[in-house]
């Protein structure tokens, strides 16, 4: 039997309807909806595409998103100065720093310049540390948080499952592993030095792929009936493709997210939810 194609857009729609009602209530109380600033350095194609998706999602639901684009030759201090200005702007409730940054600009230094209370993508050391500690005040990274919502909405059994995460980035792979562990899954994390990644993937009931390499995972690497979440965003011949060879893996897996239309829409849901949460916290603090 072919795999169930998990429709991320459909799953996201119900969440967005709920969030829109909450945003309307927030705007009526405070005069405007929550506002996100998306900071991008350079002209990465995938980042630009994602920023456009974010803006459309936010505007349709009563929030706002502005893109702050710095040129590819901007230096670290210029990026830091922009982040600092956004930190002190009372109209901006959330800040998202898009990866990748150009060579020579240290990701950790710039990411940690974002005020933790405005870190709606959960990339600062503060929020990552709180997530690792199981602290409920952590602002979870939107992409893995969206992945967890997809699993729950799809009725996937997480408790007691074996999960493999391919990729160990602080933005997707590691926080996804942490969230799965907190949800009582037993997790293996694979990376470029994993000796037999295929075997680790084949053992998984839940396979999450966030490596940034198109069609890295093939059918022979997937356990029959497994649930496969593809977080990859790659471009080949002008077409967006994932990290999973979709057509062949769909013949083996039990359920799979496509690219596009899989994890991406739910990522935007969680980013919007985090921005609303940050706005509420800011208003509570006065």
How would you classify the quaternary structure? single chain
Determine the strand fraction and express it as a percent band. Answer: 15-25%
Unreliable stretches (pLDDT < 50, length at least 5) are: none
How many helical elements? 10
Distance between the termini: 56 Å
The helical percent reads 40-55%
**Average pLDDT for all residues:** 95
Radius of gyration: 19 Å
Dominant shape: globular
Q: Which class best fits the helix and strand makeup? A: alpha/beta
- Biggest sheet statistics: 6 strands, parallel
Structure, explained:
This protein is of the alpha/beta class and 286 residues long. It is 42% helix and 16% strand. It is built from ten helices and eleven strands. It has helices spanning 8-30, 45-60, 76-87, 107-111, 125-132, 142-153, 173-182, 197-202, 246-249, 263-285; strands at residues 4-5, 35-41, 64-70, 94-97, 162-166, 186-190, 206-209, 227-230, 234-236, 239-241, 255-256. Strand 9 (234-236) and strand 10 (239-241) form a beta hairpin. The radius of gyration is 19 Å and the shape is globular. It starts with a strand and ends with a helix.
């Amino acid at each position: 039997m072919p795999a169930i194609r998990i429709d991320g857009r459909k799953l996201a729609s119900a969440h967005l309807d709920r969030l829109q009602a909450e945003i309307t209530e927030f705007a009526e109380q405070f005069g405007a909806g929550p506002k996100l600033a998306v900071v991008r350095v350079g002209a990465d194609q995938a980042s630009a595409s994602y920023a456009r998706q974010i803006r459309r999602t936010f505007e349709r639901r009563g929030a706002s998103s502005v893109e702050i684009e710095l040129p590819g030759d901007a230096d670290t201090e210029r990026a830091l100065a922009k982040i600092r200005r956004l930190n002190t702007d009372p109209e901006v409730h959330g800040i998202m720093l898009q990866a990748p940054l150009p060579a020579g600009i240290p990701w950790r230094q710039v990411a940690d310049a974002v005020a933790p209370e405005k870190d709606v993508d959960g990339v600062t050391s503060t929020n990552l540390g709180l997530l690792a500690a199981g602290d409920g005040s952590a602002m979870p990274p939107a992409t893995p948080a969206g992945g967890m919502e997809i699993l729950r909405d799809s009725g996937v059994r997480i408790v007691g499952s074996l999960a493999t995460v391919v990729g160990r980035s602080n933005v997707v792979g590691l926080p996804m592993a942490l969230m799965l562990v907190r949800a009582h899954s037993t997790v293996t994390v694979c990376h470029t030095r994993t000796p037999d990644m295929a075997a680790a993937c084949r053992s998984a009931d839940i396979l999450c792929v966030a490596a940034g390499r198109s069609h890295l995972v093939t059918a022979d690497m997937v356990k029959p009936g497994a649930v496969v979440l593809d977080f990859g965003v790659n471009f080949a011949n002008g077409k967006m493709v994932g990290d999973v060879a979709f057509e062949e893996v769909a013949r083996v897996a039990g359920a799979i997210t496509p690219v596009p239309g899989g994890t991406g829409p739910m990522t935007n849901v969680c980013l919007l939810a985090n921005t609303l949460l940050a706005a509420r916290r800011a208003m509570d603090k006065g």
